[in-house]
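the two lines:
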Amino acid sequence: MTSLILAAVVLGLMGLAYGQGLSRSRAVAAAGGRRLHSRPAYHGTLLAIWCLLPMLAVLGLWALFGPGLTRAFVLGYLPPEVAGLSGAQIEAALGRIAAIASGDGVAGASEPYEHTAAESLRRFRLFAGLIVTASTAGLGVLALRHARARITPDLRARNRVEALIGLLLLACSAVAVLTTLGIVVSLFNEALRFFTFVHPVDFFFGTVWNPGFSSTGTGGDGQYGLLPLLWGTVMVAGIAMLVAVPVGLMSAIYLSQYATRRVRNTAKPVIEILAGIPTIVYGVFALVTVGPLLSEFGAAIGLDIRATSALTAGLVMGVMIVPFVSSLSDDILRQVPVSLRDGSLGLGATPSETIRKVLLPAALPGIVGALLLAVSRAIGETMIVVLAAGNSPVLRLNPAEPVSTVTVTIVNQLTGDSDFAGPQSLVAFALGMTLFVLTLLLNLVALHIVRRFREQYE
Amino acid sequence: MTPEPMTPALHASPRLRRRRRSEAIFRSAGLGAILVALGLVAALFTMIVVQGAPAFTQATFSLDVHFDPAVLPADPPPARAADQSAADHRAARLAWERQAALANWNAIVEAALRRAAPDVEIDSRSALSIIETSERHRLRERFVADPGLLGQTLQLDMLASANADNWLKGTIDRSLPDARQQLSAPARALADRLHEEGVIRFAFAWHIFTNTDSRAAPAAAGLAGAFVGSLYMMLVVIVLAVPIGVASAIYLEEFAPKNRLTDLIEININNLAAVPSIVFGLLGAAVFIRYMGMPMSAPVVGGLVLTLMTLPTIIIATRSSLRAVPPSLREAALGLGASRTQMVFHHVLPSTLPGILTASIIGVAQALGETAPLLLIGMNAFVAAVPASPFDPSTALPAQIYLWQGNENRNFFEARTSAAIMVLLGLMVMLNALAVLLRQRLEKRNA
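prediction for all of em together
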């Protein structure tokens, strides 16, 4: 109720300020017989902003200190034996008083002191609401009057409004930077806490992953070796690239060099559908369809292939990356100057010779960059490996065996846990940091290569 | 002069023939790659539809239910007295509801079932095992909402249990021996008989859309809670990510001076776009939940995490559509005396509106399907309620898929999972169709 009134007051005053700005600036211009520097709408906007700022300040202060003040006020009405209670009991007492004050009442009998406290709480709220509303409105009106008096034909209202818009836009771009900062600070901070439990050498070069369970009290002597997870990650990503590179690259080549316009316009969006499918769907596909199929296939040819293995996860992940590889390579191939291609064809080379001996070498750096981006996507992929890789953090060479990856382990160690006290959950941040640094390096290198490639042909 | 015949020349050189052959091989390899990719799309969708479609119909009983006064509480619910506080009245009402809840609803369900097949010899447990456990709660809720039902007989639809549904659909191997069947032999026989008599029919499973998740009653489990959770998250993303993303794209493309800081922001955004989504989950767990003390499993936290994750996508896509605006438009506006801000907001922005809309929808669709970061902020918790606000615990559609695929009742939930995937993909298709539609309309208007 109060917040609705407040919102109405704020909006109403801003509207009033805008109207005042319009009429005042026009009046000033007409009286002085001079042209305004800025159009009346800018004066109105500026006035509305001037009016808004003090109101926001009051509301911010109340949001910051209001709840504490209310609480202190109610506590003052409690008899000493109740006020001296601790923790949950005092919260319960306060909750009862708030329920009585709201008119809902409490079930069963209630103490007289509760009623007096509730009565004064109700009066306090009414009073505080009035004061906050009044001071908001009052300050708003004051600011409005003050700013209104300063309107002159020479006031550069437009420039000020535009400067403010510029600041706002800058602030929005800063969000992305702050996000990166937040990632770096929180990951490193928690990872450092993890390293107070486990020595970094044991983490980065350990070959055994056996974190133990915090609930059984064996947490202290768990082993946190990164290498099995890293190996699993590399193996799954490697298999994925083995699938995605030939299929993606060849389809990009075919679509950009051979296909007729009609084929291209239908096939390309259909392949790109693969990029829009959520990864959880690929995960289910891998687990339910691909895994059992591979396992049966293995049995038919006398190989022991587990249904959830590096192979299953890698194959499906490869499918997921195909559109990524193909659209990036397509992009790169199109940037190679047509003159190179025409020259080669004109000298009598077949299209495939042109592609293999002219286009691909010219596009190679760009394609390598694109593939690095694809690798970075593969090692950061989570849901497919969570469902289909089998979660077995052991160093194995055989891709038909289950593995575990960095991302799977992050999910396993952190799911449903929010106290972050022991190494069991903190290790997720050390793993996240490793993953972040790894993908960051890959991306930086890849983006650098792609950018240099673009400049080469610009 | 007659032209020299072409064919002999073609066959003349073995070298040329080799080159032609390698050309054909290369070309068919390309075509093969396309076919593989298209085949994969087809396989994926076929698998999902084939597995998911059966879950949209479910074995449903149509039974005459008698609200027996001998079993149910006879006294009417308490009315609120004049001097009673709201809380006191609620307590009295709850006491009455508890009394209604304690009634033997199983007996009512069983009686209804026996009325449909009077001559069958079957023990209560087996009989009740073919009706979903949630149905007696539904009867109770119906009665609590309308105590006048006491003594009446109504024809009602009731869901068969997940095991009975498996049996009737054949998702469980019907030839397995008794010991490995989920239902006892008499229960299976009863289910078969009622199915033949038409008491059990396969009805469209509306409850997938209207019910929340349920562990005790898997057949009644639905997506409503997850859907609302996803909706709240998307609202947060639309309210935060779209304006912030568009604003920073405008800044970088139109206002930013060319200096080190701008370069830094640019590199940073490009990198952020490639940061694995799970890292955003870690950020959410550390910053929003631990440092800021926001609640676990809340859509608002999920929405914030997804906002940060989709921001680079929206920024990059918006920038590329801003870049596509012809420079002549900008120059004309500036030349006529517009300020930079006026040029951007009055001329450039309206003409890129379709592009910006598409960018936003791409971002929202990406956020809708993302799962990994949600697992780290607790949105894979089991929640059997529709969240009333973005601060209440909830799941999301992709997280619900993750939960369902892990359910022990594989036979039943494999189909359910695929059905949930169909719903999610359906939503994404609708979003994309909306983007295409809006774009076409806006482009027509601008043209």
